[in-house]
Amino acid sequence: MMTTLKFRNNDEMPILGLGTFRSEPNEVYNAVLSAIKIGYRHIDCAAAYGNEKEVGNAIAEAIKQDLVTREDLWVTSKLWNSSHGEENVVPALNQTLEDLQLDYLDLYLVHWPVALKKGTEMPEKASDFIPLSEVPLTNTWKGMEAALEQGLAKHIGVSNFNENQLKAIMATAAHQPEMNQVEMHPFLQQEALKSFCVQNDILLTAYAPLGSLGDENTTLRLLENDTIINIADSRSMSPAQVALAYTMQRGIAVIPKSINEARLLQNLETLNHTLTEEDIALLRDLDKGHRFIDGKFWEVENGPYTADSIWNA
Ligand code: A2P
């Protein structure tokens, strides 16, 4: 199994990282410190997760205990929607760096192709949004490029962008996006988006690679799928390892979230397994275009987005 993804300048990102979405501040400190202890070197963060201070404390402690150096780690974070606009990017990134107690990020991503008014965490009404006609994605991208040029982020990219949105920023970019982080797992394989990204030298990271088990509203459970369970049984793997291995063998990074030590280790140990061509063919057939993170939270009355337009506009 390949263990890293290579960027254009040959920097290598560990293909398996720790997700921190929905990790409560009081839980995430131990999760990050345990993860680093057992060998994780890639931590995926975001200002919007509300826990970057605790993640930062854990990273600082790991460095203090000589478990790792800063250079050993790959740290990603994301610009929240309320800081779109060229002039807002570096200040938002500086806050993230302060919270994480770092002087640079390895990768900084535009979290969503959605702009919200300053101070808005999640929108409740149409006036909480800023129309993209007022703050185009190309304008926000200029702020991302400034962050790169100032050395605050070694690489820049996006998250939740579709092909058209990528094309829009690529058309005027001085520095091309190098990563698109999107939901991906055997039920949502996004083959067309993947081809576009591969053709344009854009790497992919899969969020919710286990099918967003943390989502209590869903009854469709990826890890209870018979095909996944059968492959897991025949290869002495867990269903989670089968899901993660499949996505990584497609050349895509995965960032499973866990706050449990045994599951942290189990997920990392996926790197010791390889699925066969036969397994892969069976898993390929599971694609049903199913989004667990469906984007409905961007739909408000008379607002600029619908759950459909978010993905397809
Ligand atoms: P926990 O933190 O208690 O381990 P995703 O990354 O797809 O959003 O999934 C995260 C969810 O999956 C969390 O609820 C996490 O719970 C759970 N989880 C993480 N690793 C495993 C695993 N190996 N097996 C089963 N559930 C897991």
TrEMBL record:
Q: Which residues form the active site?
A: 49
Per its UniProt record, what Pfam families does this chain match?
Answer: Aldo_ket_red (PF00248)
Family stated for the protein in its record: Belongs to the aldo/keto reductase family.
One GO molecular function term of this record is:
oxidoreductase activity
Q: Which domain of life is it from?
A: Bacteria
What this protein is called in its record is Aldo/keto reductase family protein
Listed transmembrane segments = none
Write the record's keywords in alphabetical order, separated by commas. NADP, Oxidoreductase
Positions with a binding annotation for substrate: 111
Kindly list the residues the record flags as site (Lowers pKa of active site Tyr). 78
Q: Does Oxidoreductase count among this protein's keywords?
A: yes
Q: Which InterPro entries match?
A: AKR, Aldo/ket_reductase_CS, NAD(P)_OxRdtase_dom_sf, NADP_OxRdtase_dom
Q: Where does the NADP-dependent oxidoreductase domain lie?
A: 17-287
